[in-house]
Amino acid sequence: MESLAAWAAEGFGSVCRKLGELRPAIERIQAWYQNHPRGSTTLLGCASFKEYCKRRLHRHESTVYRMLGMNGAMRKVKRLDARRRLLEAHASAGIADVVAADIRHCAMEQLLADVRGIDAIITDPPYGKEFLPLYGELARLAGVALRPGGILAVMCGQAHLPIVLADMSKHIEWRWEIGYFMGGPSNRIWSQRINVGWKPVLVFGGVQEKWISDVVRSEAADKTLMDWGQSESGMTGIVEALTVRGELVCDPFCGSGTTGVAAVRLGRRFLGCDVDELRVESSRARVMLALGPRQMRAPS
Ligand SMILES: C[S@@+](CC[C@H](N)C(=O)[O-])C[C@H]1O[C@@H](n2cnc3c(N)ncnc32)[C@H](O)[C@@H]1O
User: Fold this and answer.
1) DSSP alpha helices (H): ranges in 146-272?
2) Looking at the predicted structure, is the pLDDT value of residue 219 above 80?
3) Separation CA 118–CA 298 (nearest Å)
4) Phi, psi dihedral angles at 103 (to 5 degrees)
5) Does 236 contact ligand 1 (Cβ within 6 A)?
6) What does the pLDDT look like over 88-115, one tens digit per residue?
């Protein structure tokens, strides 16, 4: 066990890319610790593989947590901290809440059933298989909530793209696909052996005077407030390409509010919602801070 542990620790200490290959060895060592009463099993006097790695590699605790795939708990703590700082900044800025942005705590289905005359829906729904029914419903409701000639742009993962396209284009006219190129480290889809560097933004409806480019480049995604957060630069690229000043932009899956921040900074009005109350709170604070003391007509 000592030589297996030394090999695994040295392996991921030097080359993080090898983590996938090392995973079976790491799991074997961790199981070995777990199958004995705590403290009775040690490697070089260490009561866990995490402690062993820290000591052997002389690395900081957070690095070892990351290498062992145990950083979820640490991320949660950092995220709560970022949210607290954001709400404090919003409270101390003394900004009135009745402005050009309206962010509601409700489901996409409810928001889009209630509003009309939206110029553009620009959104980033969840990508998992269990969320697939949302895409067809979004397209159906967008057909009613958008003004005539309004545009729907939907970021989506590649894994279920054929189903998403088929479901959505039943309800609204397919126009084009924008390539959204992401900065930062690429995600790995192990089952497909693909390093992902871009994702599609599906565009429906809305052929206007304005020419649009089908490429948007983004900095690394912003995961400060949530795992799925997009970057402000990326969402700014999409909002700028698809809308003009004064228009009403809607994101009915607004998460931490990145589309809203981009929209109000570019002089658009914003309407958003999310089913998660904490995210709605963060979104409101972010968008209000981005608006600053400017007062604009509330979206109707
Ligand atoms: C991919 S995240 C959006 C991230 C966002 N683009 C950002 O930068 O923060 C998708 C969001 O959709 C929300 N959601 C899931 N189902 C929903 C529904 N039926 N209606 C509204 N929001 C929903 C989730 O709570 C999540 O915050």
Assistant:
1) 161-169, 232-242, 258-265
2) yes
3) 13
4) -120, 120
5) no
6) 665 665 443 334 889 999 999 999 999 9
> Quick one: which atom of ligand 1 is closest to the CA of 134?
19
- The mean pLDDT value for 209-232 works out to 81
Query: How far does the centroid of ligand 1 lie from the alpha carbon of residue 253, in Å?
Result: 4
CA-nearest of 205, 180, 170 to 258 is 180
- Other C-beta atoms closer than 10 Å to the C-beta of 163 total 13
Is the model more confident about 297 or about 51? Answer: 51
- Asked which of 41, 70, 99 is the last residue of a domain, the reply is 70
Two structure tokens written together for 237: 């690229």
**Which residue type sits at 20?**
G
Task: Show the domain range for 115.
Answer: 91-291
**Of ligand 1's atoms, which has the minimum distance to the CA of residue 258?**
8
Number of domains within the chain? 2
Which residue, among 29, 72, 36, 73, has the nearest Cα to 51 in the 3D structure? 29
- Residue 10: pLDDT band (50, 70, 90) is confident
The answer to whether residue 86 sits within a structural domain is no
Residues 6+ apart with CB under 8 A from 38: 47
Say how far apart CA 213 and CA 86 lie, in whole Å.
34
Q: Which of 41-50, 89-98, 146-155, 207-216 has the lowest mean pLDDT?
A: 89-98
Using the mean position of ligand 1's atoms as its centre, give its distance from the Cα of residue 255 in Å.
5
